[in-house]
Amino acid sequence: MSKIIVITSGKGGVGKTTTSASIASGLAKRGYKTAVIDFDVGLRNLDLIMNCERRVVYDFVNVINGEATLNQALIKDKYTDCLHILPASQTRDKDALTKEGVGKVLDELSETFDFIVCDSPAGIEHGALMSLYFADEAIVVTNPEVSSVRDSDRILGILQSKSKRAETGDEPVKEHLLLSRYNPIRVQNGEMLSVEDVKDILAVPLLGVIPESQSVLTASNQGVPVIHQEESDAGQAYSDAVARLLGEDLEHRFLEIQKKGFFHRMFGGKA
Amino acid sequence: MSFWDYFRTTKPATAALAKERLQIIVAHERAQRGKPDYLPQLQQEILDVISKYVEIDRQDVQVQFDRNDDCAVLELNITLPEE
Fold it and tell me: FRET partner for A267 with CA separation of 20 to 30 A, picked from A2, A122, A169, A237?
């Protein structure tokens, strides 16, 4: 039986796709057979973040409609052996994702994969609801900013009422908070909500804090999930989050202002 | 403003304000969660029916919805004007 994890947020632009790519890659790096599915029909981007945009032949909707088999549509990841990507359709409308269709594809994936990571679209429309419906666990990606925190709370409410687990009265979806674009300097200046503030408001266990980092943009420019940039703070923070997802108990890093060393200041490295 | 304040560049701690505003709106929205969508319309229709007979204001009709473990309670509280 595989574990289905949805990466969701409500608000757009907070880092769902970046997180999906890195969490899925991190799980695969540790040897777990992982599939990552893009649910953003019409606005797919996971393929670009994972550098397989030119290898997309068939997509998720083709598989649902029986126009292609799952094996034809799954794209093998360039960097990690155990990872496969199922891209979203760029041409269809989001209603092409039926509950039965999505359920059938997830069932088939469950036969071979240990983890299925679902990259949700923004909003609370059909595509977003489909991506979270079958989830066993949810990673709610939140920025320390008012609209993102409010939308995260809304998504938590939807997970608790509209997921399959909620409908069948099963054990609830396990929730994780992933705080991204965190800037300790601004937090210290009182300009940004702190980790504790967001935890107080949302009351969800913290999976990780991803610092605001230049490496996220340089990684997406190249189509390499940022978790592969092992020397970068964001990459390390994602590795820690994956470890915690697997049950390891690690202390949170990058919550304090990073002191730059003498040479760093003199010669201006950008990490 | 004192003399020294002209040299200070302290910015107001807006994060604290953000937290306070969020706590209020999130608490409010959580209270609305799980309530049926038809409540406002139900309130309006009850108000319309009673208005045929007695003159009352909108705030005189209160509609409360509470959910306990296995039952839901719809509570109507209508205040009629004094004779």
Answer: A237
By CA distance, what is B23's nearest residue in A? A201
Residue of A nearest to B33 (CA): A157
Give me the interface pTM, i.e. the ipTM.
0.85
The verdict on a CB contact (< 8 Å) between A153 and B26 is yes
| pLDDT tens track for A222-260 | 999 999 999 999 999 999 999 999 999 999 999 988 776
pLDDT in tens, chain B (83 residues): 566 666 666 667 899 999 999 999 999 888 888 777 788 888 889 889 988 998 888 888 888 888 777 888 888 888 888 76
The matching CATH number, chosen from 2.40.128, 1.10.10, 2.60.40, 3.30.1070, for B11-78 is 3.30.1070
Residues of A in contact with B18 (CB under 8 A): 145-146, 193, 197
The answer for residues whose C-beta is within 8 angstroms of residue A103's C-beta and 6 or more apart is A134
Q: In sequence order, what are the residues at sequence separation of 6 or more whose Cβ sits closer than 8 angstroms to the Cβ of residue A2?
A: A109, A110, A113, A114, A115, A116
